[in-house]
Amino acid sequence: MSKSTVLTILGAIVAIVIAWFLVDVVFKVAWFFAKVGIVAVVAVVIFVLLQLLLRRRED
Q1: Cα–Cα distance between 59 and 53 in angstroms, integer?
Q2: Can you list the pairs that 17-20 forms with residues at least 24 positions away whose Cβ atoms lie under 8 Å?
């Protein structure tokens, strides 16, 4: 095997490892924002339901 072939294989392995970590970070960040969005929607629904329940009890 020539030196350039070894460097090409090592470069491909390094690229795969870097890509693996980058994709992992991107998915973690995306999942974090998805969870924040879901929590916000659930919180708004619960807030509206609580407001409706409290208004009915006051009437």
Answers
A1: 10
A2: none
**Residue 38 zone, left/alpha/beta (φ > 0; ψ -120 to 50; rest):** alpha
pLDDT at 58 over 80: no
Q: Residue 13 is which amino acid?
A: I
Helix intervals (H) in 1-59: 3-58
Which value, in Å, is the radius of gyration of the alpha carbons in the chain? Answer: 25
State the Cα–Cα distance between residues 45 and 7, nearest whole angstrom.
Answer: 57
More confident residue, 44 or 59: 44
- The pTM (predicted TM-score) of the whole model is 0.66
